[in-house]
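Anyone up for a design puzzle?
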């Protein structure tokens, strides 16, 4: 009797014809990515791997500040919109929906390609591609943690939240040192707020136990990494200025095999522009 009454009340409370609500988003098991190239005064994009179909845009920045955005769904290339002297960067961004209180859909554009950094020396002069050096280089665990700060630029820093430094793997591997934890290595990178750029990790399975790890950077999961003995493997992710507006980047390396540990041997951050 009590169960029948509860069911009747539920049916009365449910609007006739109501449809379930589905939240659109970028699934955690896909990794949208693409590449950009610069040819003359035109930037070209590749097709997007693992494309969820949301809004896509070319984003042009000048001297570290947003200059313009352009619909990238409509075209695979873009004529550079500004050719005045200065240093620029181009990146491909995908809209990531998110849902908060209220009915409106919210979210932000996030970088899914490496930055193409270029310089216009003077009006009409040939455009020059620029290479950017890392502002932060951590040789994780080197010297049992005493020698790991290979390069820490002004305004940059780091904090190891979970894990410990080790140094002593065989000299035959690419990196004999690492941060290590049975389950999860976690760290936080501090940097000047709203700095766009590239996070690069180097994972090495120094004792060749057959590790398999999941990397998450700023809440964005990357494809699992395995078979990284010997020379190891590099993992990269570009971040937009919107993703670094708080002046920090959270990084997690999780072991996907309970018999092995999580490790990371090098962490770098390459800003798209000089600070």
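Challenge accepted. My sequence:
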């Amino acid at each position: 009797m009590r169960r029948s009454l509860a069911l009747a009340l539920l049916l009365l409370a449910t609007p006739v014809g109501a449809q379930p609500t589905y939240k659109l988003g970028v699934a955690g098991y896909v990794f949208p990515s693409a590449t950009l190239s610069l040819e003359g005064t035109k930037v070209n994009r590749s097709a997007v791997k693992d494309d969820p179909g949301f809004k896509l845009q070319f984003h042009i920045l000048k001297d570290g500040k947003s200059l313009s955005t352009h619909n990238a769904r409509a075209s695979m290339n873009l004529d550079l919109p500004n050719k005045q002297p200065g240093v620029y960067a181009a990146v491909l961004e995908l809209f990531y929906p998110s849902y908060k209180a209220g009915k409106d859909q919210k979210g932000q554009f996030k970088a899914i390609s490496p930055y193409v950094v270029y310089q216009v020396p003077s009006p009409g002069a040939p455009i020059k591609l620029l290479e950017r050096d890392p502002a932060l280089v951590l040789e994780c665990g080197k010297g049992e943690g005493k020698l790991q700060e290979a390069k820490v630029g002004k305004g940059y820093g780091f904090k190891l939240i979970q894990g410990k430094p080790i140094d002593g793997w065989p000299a035959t591997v690419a990196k004999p040192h690492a941060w290590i934890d049975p389950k999860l290595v976690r760290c936080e990178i501090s940097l000047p707020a709203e700095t766009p750029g590239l996070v690069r990790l180097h994972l090495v399975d120094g004792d060749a136990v057959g590790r398999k790890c999941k990397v998450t950077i700023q809440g964005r999961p990357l494809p699992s990494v395995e078979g990284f003995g010997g020379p190891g493997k590099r993992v990269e992710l570009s971040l937009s200025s919107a993703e670094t507006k708080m002046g920090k980047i959270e990084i997690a390396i999780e072991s996907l095999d309970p018999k092995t540990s999580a490790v990371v041997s090098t962490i770098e951050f390459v800003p798209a522009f000089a600070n």
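A detail worth pointing out: The longest strand covers residues 86-98.
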